[in-house]
Design brief:
single chain, alpha/beta, 4-stranded parallel sheet, 7 helices
Length: 160
């Protein structure tokens, strides 16, 4: 329990010292259903209530259209929506672009498909943020995520 208190206090301190948010702002939280985005949603929601930041928080999730990939995590996002009482917007590649990642892989094959997906996901987050009219978009990415992505892309030969 002590860890949680220190963790939350440090995040609050960073938010306040860096003036990350202003009262009344609309903040989108990139929600994949993974542990990082779940913790981000929990902490921002809790601190917003506890310290009365006055933020309007929204969950934003992307459905890439990869069979069997996003189904379970979208269920987690939907549970988080209920648990934290936050509105949820799910944007899909199919709705935004007219095709899914499964469609893309059928066309281009597996080589470089992670590059395509990453670019499309970032654009989908931007479009979802525009739909929600958010002022800022918070994601739960960390340095380990970046290192892992680079290493996996190199190992796959996906370095286009």
């Amino acid at each position: 329990e002590c860890f949680y208190e220190v963790f939350e206090a440090e995040i609050h301190q960073v938010i306040v010292e860096n003036r990350l948010f202003k009262a009344g702002e609309r903040i989108g939280i990139g929600a994949s259903g993974g542990k990082d985005s779940t913790v981000l949603a929990y902490v921002l929601s809790k601190l917003n209530r506890q310290y009365q930041y006055g933020l309007h928080l929204f969950l934003l999730s992307v459905d890439e259209g990869i069979t069997g990939y996003r189904d379970d995590s979208l269920q987690t996002v939907k549970r988080n929506q209920i648990r934290y009482g936050l509105p949820l917007e799910v944007v899909s590649y199919k709705d935004l672009y007219g095709w899914t990642m499964d469609d893309i892989v059928k066309t281009i094959g597996h080589k470089n498909n992670c590059t395509f997906c990453g670019v499309f996901r970032r654009q989908a987050l931007d479009r979802g943020a525009a739909i929600l009219k958010v002022d800022k978009l918070a994601t739960g990415h960390n340095a380990d995520d970046i290192a892992e992505t680079v290493l996996l892309n190199i190992l796959r030969g996906d370095i286009a």
